[in-house]
TrEMBL record:
The gene is Actr5. SUPFAM superfamilies: Actin-like ATPase domain. The lineage of its organism: Eukaryota, Metazoa, Chordata, Craniata, Vertebrata. It comes from Catharus fuscescens (Veery). This is ARP5 protein. Residues 265-299 form a coiled coil. InterPro entries: Actin, ATPase_NBD.
Amino acid sequence: PQPAPLVIDNGSFQTRAGWACPDPSVPAEPLLRFRSLAARSRGARGGAGAETQVGNDLGSPEPLRWLLRSPFDRNVPVQLELQELLFDHVFQRLGVSSQGCVDHPIVLTEAVCNPLYSRQMMSELLFECYQVPKVSYGVDSLYSFYHNRRQNWPCSGLVISSGYQCTHILPVLEGRLDAENCKRINLGGCQAAVYLQRLLQLKYPGHFAAITLSRMEEILHEHSYIAQDYIEELQKWRCPEYYENNVHKMQLPFSNKLLGSTVASEEKQEKRQQQLRRLQELNARRREEKLQLDQERLDRLLYVQELLEDGQMDQFHKALVELNMDSAEELQSYINKLSLSVEQTKQKILQSEVSIEVDVVDSKPE
């Protein structure tokens, strides 16, 4: 029919879109696939304003992970302003030529038993913002069940739909969904990717930063499969020949630091020893300066004490006034304290010299 219907598989991990057209020149596969993510950068000062990137325009999501936003909570669209950005991206990339509206019927997938509020907001967005003529909602796993069902198969079955953020169990009885007995498990590809990332980071701690979540999602989608018999698969992988024929080896990005890790550790150790020597020298210099000042003050106090012992009382009292002291007892107490401080400082200087000599001897090669 004209105009051709537009099919949008609105998933929480990936959005797929294409035309439903009987023309053999139009491929049956989705023409457009991109991650259901958007990132809005703040923009440089004095330059252009905020820039919004959607889907495949993001490139690698790792540098922008803290800016990434998704319209989905689990697998239910709740952020309709972000959903509008995804729809704009779809219509622009598919070349919808009608001005001011989308003059095509739309088939849109949604979650099983989608909340009425979410469907209401989605309908409002499509009809009022894009002026779509018709909308049909459906569950992607049921579409797949009906499409793949062969002639001799029964009309009843059990559909296990494993999505990005949750898994649905859908019983189909006599060709119709038994919605009351549907079950939802909050486990999906997202949790599997995080679990795989933790396993590999524990196994290869030297490559901790290189094992990113986006790389784990790529491994999960391109290099893994679901075992029909788990115990039998384990027995297969214990066979060396089967392992060599089926193992997948991945090369992480080359890093010069990893090759020179031993050299780097030796350089770090040398730098630490140099810093320690500088710190010891600085402390020794400070102790010597303090010892010199204390020794000069002690000599001054001892000279005043000698004036008292010689009986020169006038000069003794003048010296006490200059020192801000009141009596000979106070003078004696200061002399005792300074003598003790000078002795302690001398002991510390001797100990530091011995420790520096020991460090220098230990650092020499055999």
